[in-house]
């Protein structure tokens, strides 16, 4: 009987599908991920600070989106930045009044490093071509100035117009109109019970030369016609030289 052929099975060496160092690297990456997950799970998030940080991105569609100088809605001051419960109460009263009167797009507030910055469109403050405060403007100014009254050390008021020329016997140009409107605001603020000494106030007229929107549309011109007020944390120095004044006025923007 013929011998049956013996079939020898040769083991074929299988090549690894990835370099050996990848195994060690994967293990290390997994351990690091686990480590950071444990850190996050044991940490606590300060909700107020998180909400405040998140609010800066609200309404923006991308990193390169154009940001309008005037926000579309009233900027809310975080209560944590107000120095007392009384200030928070006054602030809530101002917000409620602005909302009830439908002025969210016409009165904006922002708490900055310099102080409380208010931007108010002229339709809330004056009649067309005039510089005398209307009654509703006085209510708003008194409420806003009262939010942080005990902390204010000086006040800057700026008047701004659109680029349409004005030629009246009282206001030959937008310079005179914007300066007169800023002065009217200062005069009113000086009458309040919590007013500062007169030397702590500055009124400046910028005419049409500092627009914050286009003058090609009615909406843009309406936003350019405004009064900006900075209720500053800092006192004015004893000297009023021009370089310092210009620096402070720029800080108020």
Keyword list:
253 residues, alpha+beta, five-stranded mixed beta sheet, 12% strand
Would you write up a description of this structure?
The protein has a single domain, classed as 2-Layer Sandwich (60s Ribosomal Protein L30, Chain: A). It is 39% helix and 12% strand. It has eight helices and five strands. The chain has helices spanning 21-42, 47-55, 85-100, 122-125, 135-147, 174-190, 218-224, 242-251; strands at 107-111, 115-121, 154-160, 201-205, 226-232. Strands 1-2-5-3-4 form a five-stranded mixed β-sheet. A hairpin with a 3-residue loop joins β1 and β2 (115-121). α3 (85-100) packs antiparallel against α5. The longest helix has 22 residues, at 21-42. The termini are far apart.
Question: What's a concise summary of this model?
Answer:
By secondary structure, the chain is α+β, with helices and mostly antiparallel strands. The chain has one domain (70-251): 60s Ribosomal Protein L30, Chain: A (2-Layer Sandwich), CATH 3.30.1330.60.
């Amino acid at each position: 009987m013929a011998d049956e052929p013996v079939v020898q099975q040769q083991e074929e060496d299988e090549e690894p599908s990835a370099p050996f160092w990848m195994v060690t690297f994967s293990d290390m990456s997994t351990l690091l991920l686990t480590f950071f997950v444990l850190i996050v799970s044991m940490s606590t998030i300060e909700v107020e600070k998180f909400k405040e940080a998140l609010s800066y991105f609200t309404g923006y569609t991308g990193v390169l989106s154009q940001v309008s100088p005037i926000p579309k809605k009233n900027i809310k001051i975080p209560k944590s930045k107000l120095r007392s419960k009384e200030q928070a109460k006054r602030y809530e009263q101002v917000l409620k009044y602005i909302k009830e009167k439908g002025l969210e797009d016409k009165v904006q507030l922002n708490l900055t490093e310099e102080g409380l910055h208010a931007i108010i469109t002229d339709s809330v403050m004056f009649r067309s071509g005039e510089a005398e405060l209307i009654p509703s403007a006085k209510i708003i100014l008194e409420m806003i100035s009262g939010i942080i009254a005990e902390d204010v050390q000086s006040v800057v008021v700026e008047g701004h117009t659109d680029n349409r020329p004005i030629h009246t016997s009282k206001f030959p140009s937008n310079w005179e109109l914007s300066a007169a409107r800023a002065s009217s605001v200062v005069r009113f603020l000086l009458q309040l019970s919590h007013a500062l000494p007169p030397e702590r106030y500055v009124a400046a007229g910028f005419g049409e030369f500092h627009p914050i929107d286009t003058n090609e549309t009615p909406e843009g011109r309406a936003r350019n016609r405004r009064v900006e007020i900075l209720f500053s944390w800092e006192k004015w120095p004893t000297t009023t030289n021009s370089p310092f004044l210009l620096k402070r006025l720029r800080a108020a923007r």
